[in-house]
Amino acid sequence: MLDKLVSYWRSRSITAEEPLALYHAGEIEQAERVASDRLARAASDRGALLTRAFLLTDRGRGKDAIAIAQQLLAGNARDAQAWLAIGRAHVVAGRRKPAGEALEAALQRDAGDPAILAEAALLALAEGRQDMAAQHLSRARGKARRLALAHRELAGFLLQRGQVAASERQLQQALAAHPGDAIAHANLGAVRKDLGRSDEAVQSFERALVLQPQLSEAAFNLAMLRIDRREWGAAAALLRDYLAQHPRDAEAHYWLGQALMGDADAAGARAAYEAAVRIDSQHVRARWGAVVAQLPAVAASEHEQAQGLQAFERDLDRLCNWCRTQTRADAWQAVGAQQPLQLAAIEENHAAVLRRYGALCAELMATWAKRAKVPPPAAARTGERLRVGIVSAHGSGPSLAHALLRGWVRHLDRERFELHLFHVGSIANDAMRWAQGHVASLQQGLRDWSACAKAVSDARLDVVIYPEVGRDASTLRLASLRLARVQLAGWGHPLTTGLPTIDGYLSAQAFEPVAAAEHYSETLHALPGLGCAYRPHGTRAEAPPLATWGIAPGDRLLVAPGLAFQYGPSEDALWVEIARRCAPCKLLFLRREDGLAARLEQRLRAAFAAAQVEFDAHVRFVPRLSQAAFSGLLQRTDVILDTVGCSGFDIAMQAVECGTPVVAWEGRFLRGRFASGILRSLQLDEWIADSHAAYADRVVRLCEDAALRERVRQQIVARRGALYDDVASVQALGALLLQLAG
């Protein structure tokens, strides 16, 4: 609106008041040009002289500004704008008493002028009289740059008092007074971010940066929102812009590292973390991040993967030593800042290194617990129902909602167990809404992990279960504390936690190899069967847009459903071999994380090129799909290609629900045995492989023999009922809980 108004002013004939109006509206350069033009033609032009007075004040020449205003007052003592000019000059010079007298004189002559009211409000704010400032601003109407500033300053005071909603209203009024106030847009974005209205906050920050691209605070805050949304590339670009202006900001370097880790650039992340540590040697979160960043998100080669693991173990030991020699009370903030998720993709026993990692987490969180005065766990109770808590940050995830949470909540005996569910997340979801009617209590929306810690502690639980320790910072911090007498982890993250505060690990007999106890720092409890009472999704399938992806009707469709980081470089030759032998076919990889998928695609392209197999003729990376579209894709798929060494439970179960053949890999550890365990439970052992050659042979057999594929489909459909609603596994869990808490 302001731009159009200014354009209108520029296109019409100039009047005596215009330079002053332009100045108050914030069009400083235009105001000066118009005033100079006026004064060249008429040295006594009042509006031009007043404009010059205000400009002189802005440039530190208050004495000259006062002289001009006094000259105008000599001819008209009731000139409110001249009194305002004098008041402004005294304000800038820090002379509050004469400033107040001049502004009072201005208000007596024009009590409704927004520019005068704004200056009076600013003076009142400088004197700590916020209520008086609010009174002045409540009477101000119209557009004026200084009026916007006054509203903005009052908003800051209100925010300091915790009056966030009132602060937002003042910022909205600031923008009504001056829509082009970039700082007001930025501050409004910050307030809306604090209020949890991220979409509106993003719009405010984006508008601020359009108006003032160098407004670094807006760039930083917008980058934080981009990180919250996992928009890693956009966040990194904003943080680089910010660091161009603030190269010594250690916190910004740290967050750049976080964004680059999300974008699968581990080397760039390490450089950013190390830059933060060079600036602030005590930046423990950056030190922590640099250790985890030794593990490449998507390794370019087996050598890089092996080197990364060695570097991670070496630097973890150094971090442990550093943390144990420091006395920083806030070192616990590093726990979970980055987590070594990539270890799951490396098919080795990581129990030893995760014990060291877990011990450090527990030690640091113990310092927080001591300061927060966390009480000891509740003592054992007799003759009462066992109080069991389940703490999850990913209650909406398919594996947890369908495999673990729903089954436990549905089938644990209410006469023996009192269930309390804690959702560490900001958004309610269907799983939590369903659970609310089936548990003794549900606490959700606990965005602050410390609030969740208090809630769990106050519940005085006998047992607390963390289904997915290691997948997010909040649950890791909570699990590193001792909040109940018995604390258990589940296979939502299929690696040992390494935490001395976790007593047992809930797994399943179908998924664990011989001597599996060696893979855990906790006591392993392998429940019968799949260890859960799973129910099928029952999703109504939608046809996926195969033609859009360049998939012809005659193509054999092979879906590789894992996350990009789960595909190790040692398996690249396997995918090339399958593509070559199954042609015409399309191998579909899912593009769930753009940065990770791009690196995997780059590596696979190189492997296909080395084998002289055309990549684009055989491979597609497709976007994230809805549950309905994914079900439709599974129904069209000829073979699901289980991820080698890092299998997916819910993917395999969805394939079973759709009757889709699966070729599974028999991994050495839990994380690599979900699909194979499911197939063994269906007595389909012949489709399980433990070598690349055997894996490829099985895929080729299914691709080439339509009758065989149909027979396997029929076998899956006929037998899959045995996998569902396994109440016995939950009953076994109940017996275990009673035994452990007895």
TrEMBL record:
GO biological process entries: protein O-linked glycosylation
Chain coiled-coil ranges: none
Pathway info: Protein modification; protein glycosylation
Ranges for the TPR repeats: 182-215
Enzyme class, first EC level, given as a word: transferase
GO molecular function: protein O-acetylglucosaminyltransferase activity
Transmembrane segments: none
Pfam families: Glyco_transf_41 (PF13844), TPR_16 (PF13432)
Catalytic activity, EC: 2.4.1.255
Domain of life assignment: Bacteria
Keywords in alphabetical order: Glycosyltransferase, Repeat, TPR repeat, Transferase
Limits of the O-GlcNAc transferase C-terminal domain: 570-720
Family under the similarity heading: Belongs to the glycosyltransferase 41 family. O-GlcNAc transferase subfamily.
Protein name: protein O-GlcNAc transferase
Source organism: Ramlibacter ginsenosidimutans
